[in-house]
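User: Please fill in residues for this 419-position structure.
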């Protein structure tokens, strides 16, 4: 363990080798992946482990549980037994997890305990390679019994230039195995980021499938008792994290090794993403739509005029969404008039809207500059109160994870803290 509580990972072995050393019939490793693995061997992956607090620790005074706390009582059973997706409680839980993934392991485990997973096991896995535009951070949250796990990817922090470069690294990349049309391609930056931490993530999931904790023992902690085997896995993320979640779902479904041993893919229940950009070209999207799981159980949420689901733009090449799309839409024309009443002393929520499923998916913005420029203007307008309710084409403001939590909060739930 390092001095800051992190566990250094030794990293994968150096894989550079002559082309003639590649086994017959195998796909040669792309040059970028060889460089990435060499960088990871030098810097290594790192992990941070924690245990979620008990309700008694979260509430040192008064009753440990009350109506509204935890936010979702019997959450583990809900995650295990949900008959269909999207489920309103699960959508709220995963939106909250994705939003707080911009913090650290302690914060994620705390908020998930408040949501209903008391004393959860949490492992944070991260790596960073600036020269390769890699910023990959994953969280695994495992219920105390071991029966449920949530894999959550961190999105693009607003002040992290390398993460923004990852989003902009739109060079098409082919997956090294057959998936639909052999000419189909995916977003190179998203694909690279998932692969940077994938094997450590899957090593933790393998332990969960065998009745063990996803994390290591904490200092002065006795051996963790054997847990139940993993039954239900959910994958989620906001922004870049949503793209990584969707990409991981495709890998789990279509790389045979994840089904042959432990059947991690068979434990995958659903994927919920929030403000997710597109991850592949139309051929790739059609291949995903041909998979019943990816077509029905990948649930994408879009908040009103969020610009990110419309990226990459058309100038970067053709991209298309897949899965199911739910948009939270604010009727701006009506609210634009009524919202002015706030300046006359009347209370009115100009952001109130409705969540609806759309079969015609969000399309691509014309250009990076056009889409982001319109979003920047909308952001500036949102800071001028009389203009905040006027209709816009794209918006940075609408990309905020707090809006996604608000959009999917079930009736009767006050907030994610349960207070």
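Assistant: Residues filled in for all 419 positions:
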């Amino acid at each position: 363990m390092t001095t800051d509580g992190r566990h250094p990972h030794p990293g994968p072995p150096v894989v550079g080798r002559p082309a003639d050393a590649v086994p017959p019939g195998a796909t040669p490793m792309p040059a970028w992946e060889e460089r990435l693995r060499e960088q990871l061997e030098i810097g290594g992956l790192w992990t941070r482990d924690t245990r979620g607090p008990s309700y008694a620790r979260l509430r040192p005074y008064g009753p440990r549980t009350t109506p509204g706390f935890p936010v979702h009582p019997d959450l583990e059973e809900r995650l295990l037994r949900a008959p269909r997706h999207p489920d309103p409680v699960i959508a709220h839980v995963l939106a909250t997890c994705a939003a707080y993934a911009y913090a650290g392991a302690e914060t994620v485990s705390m908020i998930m305990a408040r949501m209903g997973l008391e004393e959860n096991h949490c492992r944070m896995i991260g790596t960073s390679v600036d020269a390769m535009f890699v910023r990959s951070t994953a969280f695994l949250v495992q219920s105390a019994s071991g029966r449920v796990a949530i894999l959550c990817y961190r999105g693009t922090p607003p002040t992290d230039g390398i993460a923004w470069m990852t989003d902009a690294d739109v060079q098409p990349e082919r997956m090294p195995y057959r998936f639909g049309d052999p000419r189909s391609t995916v977003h190179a930056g998203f694909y690279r980021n998932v692969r940077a931490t994938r094997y450590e993530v899957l090593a933790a999931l393998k332990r969960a499938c065998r009745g063990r904790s996803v994390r290591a023992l904490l200092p002065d902690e006795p051996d963790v008792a054997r847990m139940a085997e993993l039954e239900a896995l959910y994958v989620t993320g906001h922004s870049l994290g949503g793209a990584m979640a969707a990409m991981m779902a495709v890998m789990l479904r279509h790389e045979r090794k994840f089904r042959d041993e432990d059947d991690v893919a068979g434990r995958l229940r659903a994927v919920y993403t929030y403000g997710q950009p597109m991850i592949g070209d139309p051929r790739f999207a059609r291949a995903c739509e041909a998979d019943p799981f990816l077509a029905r159980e990948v649930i994408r949420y879009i908040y009103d005029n969020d610009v990110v689901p419309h990226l990459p733009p058309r100038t970067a090449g053709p991209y298309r969404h897949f899965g199911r799309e739910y948009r939270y839409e604010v009727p701006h024309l009506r609210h634009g008039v009524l919202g002015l009443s706030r300046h006359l002393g009347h209370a009115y929520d100009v952001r109130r809207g409705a969540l609806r499923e759309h079969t015609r998916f969000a399309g691509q913005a014309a250009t990076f500059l056009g889409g982001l420029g319109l979003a920047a203007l909308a952001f500036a307008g949102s800071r001028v109160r009389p203009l905040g309710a006027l209709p816009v084409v794209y918006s940075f403001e609408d990309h905020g994870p707090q809006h996604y939590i608000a959009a999917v909060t079930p009736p009767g739930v006050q907030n994610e803290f349960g207070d």
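For context: Residues 7-17+26-408 form a domain with the Rossmann fold fold (CATH 3.40.50.1820).
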